[in-house]
Specification:
It is a single chain. With 179 residues, the chain is mainly beta. It has one domain. The chain has 1 helix and 15 strands. The strands form 4 sheets. A 9-stranded antiparallel sheet has the order 8-7-6-5-15-14-13-12-11, covered by helices on one side. A two-stranded antiparallel sheet has the order 1-2. The chain has a two-stranded antiparallel ribbon with strand order 3-4. Strand 13 and strand 14 form a beta hairpin.
Amino acid sequence: MQNGGLVDSSQAAHGQRNNDVFEEDISCKRVNDAFGATWRSSRVAMITFNAKPDGTLKPHYELRKIGDHEYGKYAFSTKWLRIGYGSAGSVGQRGPIWNACHLIGSDHDGDEGEIHYGAIWRSFPYEAAADIWITTGDDRVHKVRRQFQDDRWKFPFATALDVFSYDSAQIEVPYVDGR
């Protein structure tokens, strides 16, 4: 059942409890596998943008994962912080992060292309309708768009676009505390 663009959690095909532990939503296996491959990469950069209604993108936050270390900074700052983002999990404290996944389409140009999924993203207390694009060459996440019901919760804007890159030559270890 659709409710303002979101799936009613009582009717969604999401993970079930198994001995008081939530399991992944089986419809989201490809999405969860892509996120697993993304966060297992030796170098990953992700920029979260404020995706404005006019189509413009304003950088909001940048995350870099280099080996076992993760760093983050807001766009308005020059200061990087070492963080413990915990980005590899597919199940949060209240259940699966990705729910009710469904294939929207694919775009292939030879061996390269993307597969586009729709889903519900949940990370308590937040929830958003989401689009996920997975590259077919390496089965990693290319971008994620999350549409929140309002702009006063997770971000100071309603639509967040996360864009991932994997170019080791471009993803440098940032300076943290002068080092």
